[in-house]
Design brief:
2 copies of one chain form a homodimer. Chain A is an alpha+beta fold. Chain A has one domain: Winged helix-like DNA-binding domain superfamily/Winged helix DNA-binding domain (Arc Repressor Mutant, subunit A, Orthogonal Bundle), CATH 1.10.10. Helix content of chain A is 40%, strand content 19%. The first copy, chain A, has 7 helices and 6 strands; from the N terminus they run H-H-H-H-H-E-E-H-H-E-E-E-E. In chain A, strands 1-2 form a two-stranded antiparallel ribbon. Chain A has a two-stranded antiparallel sheet with strand order 3-4. The relative contact order of chain A is 0.10. At the A-B interface, helix 1, helix 2, helix 3, helix 7 and strand 3 of A face helix 1, helix 2, helix 3, helix 7 and strand 3 of B. Strand 3 of chain A pairs antiparallel with strand 6 of chain B, so a sheet runs across the interface. Chain A binds a DNA duplex through helix 4 and helix 5.
Chain lengths: 156, 156
DNA sequence: ATTGACAGTTCTAAAACAGAACTATAAGGC
DNA sequence: GCCTTATAGTTCTGTTTTAGAACTGTCAAT
């Protein structure tokens, strides 16, 4: 299956994987959420090759996750900032970080702590139901085909 | 940077990307959450090559996300089920699906709807603070170095 | 004895990636 | 004017990963 085919799948997970499901995109987005914006900044803190970085940035711009904006004329220089679509990836990033915090840290503990400005405390993200506010677990959810489901009986 | 190096990074996101940050692992896990368990089932519904499927399953078992369990003797046959570590990826999967639902669906609408058994309603997942229960956004969070932070001034 | 189901393994060609060098534009120091 | 530095890429070559198809081994059913 080609990458392009993934985007066309009738599955929201597959389509999102087409955007962020490679080795570098999520790491680039991590840097974006840490307020990094420039090519050299991404390259030096990630250790990604320049070639691949240029390509990934193009991809993220093409998908509307980042916007490429000139920050000076002569010589023209651009920086990359998160669009609203990109900012909306925050729960994805945070849930990944949280899983890593629980299951992948070594004896030294978490590399980062997160403070919720509103309440002032260090917190973990919790996923709850938009309707009743109770936590959501795999076993507590029932799946139904939606209007965009594929007709053939294949998973979506 | 090699995949192995990713696992060693002092960053919970990087370490999690080492587990799920490729093109197929998340799709395999999607099938697991949809109660698929067997090699042939994964292969036929994903269209992944058998070679790569075998390798990815091994990787997920090695990381403790899946467990390989015999379901019959003679001939020996195995199936793959989610461990607790794997079940804990549910918020990651759901936040990815939700982002796709908002930003990647075509005119036909969502391929899938999710019902919260507890309240009986179709819902969206919402990420809230474990301490105060209020929703979490990128701008409402402040990041601090934790005990596992790298000493050199590099992003983690 | 033959077919089919299942869970893989092995092979070759194509695509993606790593690592390093190179290009283009301009500012600043001498 | 000439040299160095900064930034944002592009180009090149060799290695690794992936796609696609065919093949293996074990057993049950016909």
């Amino acid at each position: 299956m080609k990458w392009d085919a993934l985007e066309e799948e009738p599955c929201s997970l597959a389509r999102t994987v087409a955007v962020i499901g490679d080795r570098w995109s999520l790491l680039i987005l991590r840097e974006c959420f840490l307020r990094k914006r420039r090519f050299e900044a991404f390259q030096s803190s990630l250790g990604i090759t320049r070639h691949l970085l240029a390509e990934r940035l193009k991809k993220l711009v093409r998908f509307g996750v980042l916007r490429r904006i000139p920050y000076q004329q002569s010589p023209k220089r651009y920086e990359y900032i998160l669009t609203q679509k990109g900012l909306d990836l925050y729960p994805v990033i945070m849930s990944i970080v949280h899983w890593g915090n629980i299951h992948m840290v070594d004896s030294r503990g978490r590399p980062m702590l997160h403070e919720h400005k509103k309440c002032g405390k260090m917190f973990d993200p919790v996923m709850v139901c938009s309707e009743c506010g109770e936590p959501v677990t795999a076993k507590g959810v029932h799946v139904h085909p939606g209007p965009g489901a594929r007709q053939a009986p294949t998973a979506a």
